[in-house]
């Protein structure tokens, strides 16, 4: 039946119709989609590598002429415009930032004028804490759930719960 269900059909079907398909068909469709995703990711990576080979020197020269080492540059190529984007990724050393914030605070200034501080608690650590510690943090904790995801694996048959 998998050969009878195309991905174009699947895309247009309501969830109830998809849910009514046999599990073997759902598994086959999921495997086909995973294979397509992998193919597209590999093809996109290859295309981007080729575009980088073709345009990186020109983009680097134009950025240098603008006094930039990253950012978006527009390159003409015949009747096309190629947008070469080299995003800037900045990482901050957390220990050094903490020391700087402490120095700012000791000098009497407010570090909030210069840095944004984000507090995080590892969920694994939180669940391992003693109950009296967890209770103190509960008012600051909000749990949200993400979008449901499913995968299908072949295995022994079980009854649906």
Give the helix/strand layout.
Elements: H1 7-12, H2 15-19, H3 23-65, E1 71-77, E2 80-86, H4 94-106, H5 123-128, H6 131-137
Could you name the key traits of this structure?
single chain, 161 residues, mainly alpha, 2 domains, two-stranded antiparallel sheet, 9% strand, flat
Give a concise summary:
50% of the residues lie in helices and 9% in strands. It contains six helices and two strands.
Rg estimate, integer Å: 26 Å
**CA-to-CA gap between the ends?**
26 Å
Q: What is the molecular shape? A: flat
Query: What portion of the residues fall into strands of 2 or more residues?
Result: 5-15%
Give average pLDDT, whole number.
Answer: 90
Largest sheet: 2 strands, antiparallel
The total count of strands amounts to 2
The share of residues in helices is: 40-55%
Can you characterise this structure?
- With 161 residues, the chain is mainly α.
- 50% of the residues lie in helices and 9% in strands.
- The protein folds into two domains: 1-87, no CATH class; 91-142, no CATH class.
- It has helices at 7-12, 15-19, 23-65, 94-106, 123-128, 131-137; strands at 71-77, 80-86.
- A two-stranded antiparallel ribbon has the order 1-2.
- The protein contains six helices and two strands; from the N terminus they run H-H-H-E-E-H-H-H.
């Amino acid at each position: 039946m998998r050969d009878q269900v195309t991905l174009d059909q699947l895309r247009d079907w309501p969830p109830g119709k998809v849910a009514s398909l046999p599990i073997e068909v759902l598994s086959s469709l999921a495997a086909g989609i995973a294979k397509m995703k992998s193919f597209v990711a590999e093809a996109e990576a290859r295309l981007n590598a080729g575009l980088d080979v073709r345009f990186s020197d020109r983009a680097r020269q134009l950025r240098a002429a603008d006094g930039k080492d990253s950012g978006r540059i527009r390159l003409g190529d015949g009747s096309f415009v190629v947008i070469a984007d080299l995003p800037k990724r900045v990482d901050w050393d957390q220990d050094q930032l903490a020391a700087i914030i402490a120095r700012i605070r000791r000098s009497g200034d407010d570090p909030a004028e210069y840095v944004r501080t984000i507090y995080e608690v590892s969920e694994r650590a939180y669940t391992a804490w003693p109950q009296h510690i967890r209770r103190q943090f509960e008012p600051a904790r909000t749990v949200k759930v993400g979008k449901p995801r499913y995968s299908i694996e072949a295995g022994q048959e079980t009854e649906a719960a």
